[in-house]
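Researcher: We're reviewing a set of sequences before deciding which ones to prioritize for further study. For each one, I'd like a predicted 3D structure that I can look through quickly. This is RNA polymerase sigma factor. If possible, include the structure in token form so it fits the rest of the review sheet.
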Amino acid sequence: MGRARRIFPLSSSNLQTSCLLTESDLIEGLQRLEEPAFRALVAQYGDRIYNTVLGLVQRAEDAEDLAQEVFVRVWQSVGSFKREAGLGTWIYRIAVTAALDFRRKQQRHKRGGFLVSLFSRHETEPEAPDFHHPGVAAEQKERSALLFRAIRALPEKQGAAFVLQKLEGLRQDEIAAVLDTTVSSVESLLHRAKQNLRKELAGMMG
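Model: Here's the predicted structure for RNA polymerase sigma factor, in token form for your review sheet.
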């Protein structure tokens, strides 16, 4: 399994601090706007958030920008964090929302581009995913490119549920908390996602 590049430079002391702090201590430090607490947060969640966002937007540069934006949002809004969900759940929720918002903006832009292309003499080819996900072994890169194209074709919540389970290893109850839905709804989302992925992949390889 590969590893994501760090979106912030971290020292070994940051990693040690993140291991020593309890979640409650970490939240309290963040709410006091203590820089060591923020560095510990990034040490603990940086790779996970980058991987999640990358699985949804499928472009490394965009994923890196969005992951940094997620942590900026956390820093700015942690003072109002009510602890109704776990810290990780809250951060994943911010990340998924940011990634899906970004994709919607992209889709609106592409629809506008399509209208322009109707009056252009040049045809544009659909873009292939421009990234290698760190959770996929290098020798499986070609197969994974097809899989990620299929994931991108899924409805938003199906894609998010699939990425959170298969790439991040979240349990169904954790995914339900991130997506603010029920476990039975997550089961249904994952079931439909797998069905749709099989159809998409069969079409690509057929």
